[in-house]
Amino acid sequence: MPYSFTYFWRTSGTKLESMQIEISTEKSLTDELATLLQAHWLFCTSTTPIEHVYALDASRLFTPDITVFGARIQDELVGVGALRILDIEHAELKSMHTLSRLRGLGIGKAMVSHIEEFAKGRGVKRISLETGATEPFKPARQLYESLGYQDCEAFGDYVLSEDNTCMTKLI
User: Fold this and answer.
1) Is residue 23 classed exposed, middle or buried when 0-12, 13-18 and 19+ CB atoms within 10 A define those classes?
2) How far apart are CA 61 and CA 84, in angstroms?
């Protein structure tokens, strides 16, 4: 079932603007999703040495342990996120990306909230993530911190470096 979120903000003066964000499960790798995931890959590889990039190739996202979500505004795919089940109570937030022209409007926050609710419904108690530790990833780290994620040790196959960090949250 799609998750719907309305974001409101003020423009000049007292005018109130809004947008409807709809988040739903992506069942296959469409051209539109492939383009957004390619933008995610290019962002990661242009800001981080390749040996410290853990972004998944789009073809590796559609496996039984991963659920992919898309965020749409007026039928345009504007954001993506995924949940990888690590074990019965632990999952990983993966492939979070919002179109650069729409960052800061609450799309990422809505996506994480939706994924957390989805995970809770499957018995997950903890969600962890790996993200960049450098300046280009600061907005992402701030988003995760604002949602209650805290720095943690590396998990799974991750190796911490000056270029990346891991975070976790009990849900």
Assistant:
1) buried
2) 9
Joined together, the tokens standing for residue 162 give: 């000056």
Q: What is the pLDDT of residue 20?
A: 85
pLDDT digits (tens, 9 = 90+) for 27-71: 999 999 999 999 998 888 888 888 888 888 788 899 999 999 999
Find the helix or strand (DSSP H, E) in which 31 lies: helix 31-47
Tell me what pLDDT residue 124 has: 98
Residue type, 29: L
- 2, pLDDT greater than 70: no
Q: What is the residue whose two structure tokens read 């300046």?
A: 135
pLDDT at 8: 55
Please classify residue 89 by burial: count the beta carbons closer than 10 Å to its beta carbon, then call 0-12 exposed, 13-18 middle and 19+ buried.
middle
Average pLDDT of 118-139? Answer: 95
The rounded distance, in Å, linking the Cα atoms of 43 and 50 is: 11
- Tokens 């390619």 sit at which residue? 38
Residues 47-55: contacts with CB within 8 Å, 24+ apart?
Answer: 47/132, 47/134, 47/136, 47/137, 48/132, 48/134, 48/163, 48/164, 49/163, 52/161, 52/163, 52/164, 54/130, 54/158, 54/164, 55/95
